[in-house]
Amino acid sequence: MSTFQAPKGTYDLIPPNSATYLAVREAISVPLRNSSHGYIETPGFENVELFARGVGESTDIVTKEMYAFETKGGDKLALRPEGTASVLRAALEANLHKGGNLPVKLWYSGSYYRYERPQKGRYRHFSQVGAEAIGAEDPALDAELIILAHQAYRSLGLRDFRILLNSLGDKECRPVYRAALQDFLRGLQLDEDTRRRIEINPLRVLDDKREAVQEQLIGAPMLRDYLCEACKTYHEQVRELLTAAGVAFEDDPKLVRGLDYYTRTTFEFVHDGLGSQSAVGGGGRYDGLSEMIGGPALPSVGWALGVDRTVLALEAEGITLDIPAATAVYAVPLGEEARRVLFGKVTELRRAGVATDFAYGGKGLKNAMKSANRSGARLALVAGERDLAEGVVQLKDLVSGEQTAIALDAVVDEVRRALG
Ligand code: AMP
User: Fold this and answer.
1) pTM to 2 decimals?
2) Mean pLDDT of 155-166
3) C-beta of residue 309 within 8 angstroms of C-beta of residue 121
4) Where does ligand 1 bind, in terms of residues with CB under 6 Å?
């Protein structure tokens, strides 16, 4: 293996494409910052126990996909496979829920790690932007988050995504359903692995993609027929609020997610141009998670949107984001004196907020102009001895090729005017 090769299942974000990732993170965070979510950052690793208890001992994420390790000091840690458990842990540790102002609304952006089989859209290191609203049970909060994600995707210009919505019930009705489902599943012809899953996480069997399994699932009891009155009413209100906001969704009674902590509202954003890894984001309500990790009862709801797959979705729809060129002005000095003077002008322009670069490394004119063109700059500033003697620099429009002499002490104003 070459030392220049990123580890399997990972890839680097490099210019110019990396600018799209930044823009996607930014676009997803705008609606969150505009709806009173405060920014939170937590460590890239946690005590493994947090995920085992929070995400769930029976999930693939914990049993198969976690990067868990023991430190030299004997601490059992894991790279974070998702954001919610960490954010809730941090909120509890800082007593944010005791500030008398619930829900605590937080947003985050960062790297996550899962030891999965890599394929297009599925990586071992990926990036998410997420939001959590901790400590309130209110269907408007569930609706709010779905509406904000919808707004984020729309602001990027995406159209070919759908919202799948379901309710997973609560601690009253889900156990009854779970037992009924187990009864049904135990009567089917299933392999040993799946049989084991029936006992620890029967809802996940519904999610099995294999046709031979899906065929047998026809007639399986559906959770929606087991929802208690409180869950039904709650879900109906979420649906009504979404409809009133003009956000279309599809009821998907089979939608279960890969994390154990969800209760009631669960949803997924899927994009139709992505093939098998079609989920671009997902989330739901997790009313029991705080207690699962040893905290007080704090009903909460959240989502995480995948940045990598959102970028793939943009590609699938042929959308290129309008990202301003990294460089607007490129300065080309001819000779030592010009280097000194133009470098000063570069600093002045940058301080004035104009994205400016400089021909470093003593390039000749021809090479320097090539670099200027490659930089994407609209304008070049070129100066030699004679220009300086006259107190001017040449301002060249790199698109039209037009060139004019401008006074040295008016560079910032002239450049601004030329850039419009
Ligand atoms: P989850 O935390 O599993 O609900 O995932 C939320 C979102 O994160 C998904 O919809 C994906 O967009 C993204 N995601 C999850 N796992 C991966 C992965 N292995 N590679 C790339 N993106 C992922």
Assistant:
1) 0.93
2) 97
3) yes
4) 82, 114, 116, 122-123, 126, 128, 257-258, 279-282, 304, 306, 308-309
